[in-house]
């Protein structure tokens, strides 16, 4: 008989139900199959969903109960042992799908009667969310469990649980939509229809990918838990796809239709239910990782092959348990299996460092030069490459199961995490202690942030974070959160993807139709007008739409196109050499390099670097080379200033930091200079305020103001100045 639904309890055990009324239990380690229970004859099962395991931070070892929907209009709450705890009359006609929310606090069911109902954990009706004239074939919860996505004929509908909230509805397919799924990590939506296509959408209903029409209707789609892969099932067809839509692999099993696909908890395998009574199992293999001259491939579930392309040496790495996640970067391969973590050095593949894992199912590995981060359902764990636990950062309301490589970033001294509860907020931790940086306040932006990235090199005090927000604008800011915060500055628009270089602070991204490299992003804090001159731009039409930057190692950039193909780009090696010279204060070498290369972009980078390091002699040469004569003159005038403080202050002014310049001058007791700075900038109110406060040079300010007004033929209207002119002392507010 047709098998209708499957669900995993642990990474190696699953239950299936079929039209012969039986619930079977499959153990994949021992390959045993046992019958759990035979249901009453009137129950024809349609959908099954296990109660979530990680409730309230406490992780149960395995799921304890599941909901089963059936064709008689009921849903049944059934324990692991097969006892029917409760049956509830839910819909007229069959209950076509039932899904627990991520916290397990609510259950949504949909039926042939066109109703979408929300139930409590114990099976009491809370509300009827929607009703329509056509059957609802599939339903999914939004990542925050506050919205529900369901099908309505050819349309997809996202409806919030709150009454009167805005409903989003759009036409998604040319035929009936049979299945839909919404991933909590990447916030993307899948849909499958009778028009023989599957599509990927974002949560605003924008189409990101649409497949070619297949021969038969697509009967099932399902996200892997971590949101990196999804599976598609059709008649005699099982396909594995990347989250951006392109297909990794196509299998043609003898399975009739695949009606339901369920991924295991660790995302390494999936099970599908078939119309011919079979349950199909598939394992994800042949994943590949590349770094410099090494290529690592997962050839079997417990075996990796390392290929060194320089000398064609091949090493085989054997593991005790199956491989769940891996990462290759910075000279190390980090592999997590179901129970352990292995750390290999690329210099020696024979002796890995091995330590045990508490939770097991690692969902993400991030590497920096000095350490790496493991994420599992329980938390964030930072380890050194010697296997020592360095820290375990936490913040209030942290949910690690919804984090991915776009929302977490690691550098040698800093860890940044974008909050899921409030997507405008980034928490920034000191890596070694696991404590929040500075005064503990997170970084807050005005709109939702979709991707974050920390730079990898340079001093801790100058660490920068780049991020893309919902409007696809690229911003950069300093992570240092002491005292005066650095501004969040916009440096790009319509940015699809970004990456920092691994050896110098160079940023690359694809913005709109151009591939852009920011050779020295810090320019925005030094001399904003110079930024366009420090960029390298190239036409990006060859990347097609929605490309992703896979790596930026050395001067090689690897870009993954929307169709899955890889494109390799090389950029000039000189900016990286310049970064190296400047970081070790070799200014003469830097100037020599620029003279040798004769490139305006490089001179502009050097000018900004010199001003940032307060090296005025180099800055003067560099600005002269790019023809910025006004700045050369200003730098010359700074050199002739008598005191060190005033020179420093004028350099701060050069970079537009008026406030800091004023503070510096006042601390040095140079009140007249501080007032003069504001007069030069026509900031009259502040100039007068300082003069009155320090009871000095009020007449100078008034005289300058008078001359300024006379030059423009205007009358004095500012009350403070009128009062002052009459010799009245002004009360300070």
UniProtKB/TrEMBL annotation:
Keyword Methyltransferase set for record: no
GO cellular component, one term: axoneme
GO biological process, one term: cilium assembly
Domain IFT80/172/WDR35 TPR: 602-730
Entry keyword set: Cell projection, Cilium, Cytoplasm, Cytoskeleton, Flagellum, Repeat, WD repeat
InterPro entries hit by this protein: Beta-prop_IFT80_2nd, TPR_IFT80_172_dom, WD40/YVTN_repeat-like_dom_sf, WD40_repeat_dom_sf, WD40_rpt
Entry protein name: Intraflagellar transport protein 80 homolog
Protein's organism: Buceros rhinoceros silvestris
Lineage per the UniProt record: Eukaryota, Metazoa, Chordata, Craniata, Vertebrata
